[in-house]
Amino acid sequence: MKHVHIILLLMIALMAPGILMSQDAGVVYLEGWPSLRSGGATRELDFGLAVRPGDSVLTGRRDYVELDQDGNSIRINADTVFTLREIERDGRRETVMTNTVGSVAYRFQTLAGRRQQVGTATAVAGVRGTEFTVYAGSDGSSLF
């Protein structure tokens, strides 16, 4: 019985990093000189970098970034602040993608039982398998 518990603990420990990493979004395309704000430090964004929960992508006037998160496409347009956040709801961690200003276009695949959450400073929406753009104004206005 003791061996079964040890095996179960090892399986959970090995699976946990994969579950957490699946919330990351990878940079697959960019134009200009966008930035990544992570842990209070800001650095230049580059191909292949992972955007993790708590990180923000900042684009300037001539910047554009495309992220891939488990086959879902996130296109961050110019003059935008996009943040990948993690919240806990009913004992489970969920990722919320927000843009506080600017516009972000999303294309989500349909996955049974899995809902993506997107939002702005003033609104949050849950979606499944669709394509849309979210606009967030500097005055707090939102358009989905």
The share of residues in extended strands comes to: over 45%
CATH structural class = Mainly Beta
Largest sheet: 13 strands, mixed
Q: What share of residues is helical?
A: 10-25%
- Tell me the series of helices and strands, N- to C-terminal: HEEEEEEEEEEEEE
Low-pLDDT windows of residues: 3-22
* CATH-assigned fold name: Jelly Rolls
Cα shape:
globular
Q: What attributes does this structure have?
A:
144 residues, mainly beta, Jelly Rolls, 13-stranded mixed sheet, 13 strands, 14% helix, 50% strand, disordered N terminus
How are the SSEs ordered, and which strands pair?
Elements: H1 2-21, E1 25-31, E2 35-38, E3 41-44, E4 50-51, E5 56-58, E6 64-69, E7 72-76, E8 81-89, E9 92-107, E10 116-119, E11 124-127, E12 131-136, E13 142-143
Parallel strand pairs: 9-10
Antiparallel strand pairs: 1-4, 1-6, 2-3, 2-5, 5-8, 6-7, 7-9, 8-9, 9-12, 10-11, 12-13
Describe this structure in words.
The chain is mainly β. It has one domain: Jelly Rolls (Sandwich), CATH 2.60.120.1440. It has one helix and 13 strands. Strands 1, 2, 3, 4, 5, 6, 7, 8, 9, 10, 11, 12 and 13 form a 13-stranded mixed beta sheet that branches. The longest helix has 20 residues. The termini are far apart. The N terminus is likely disordered.
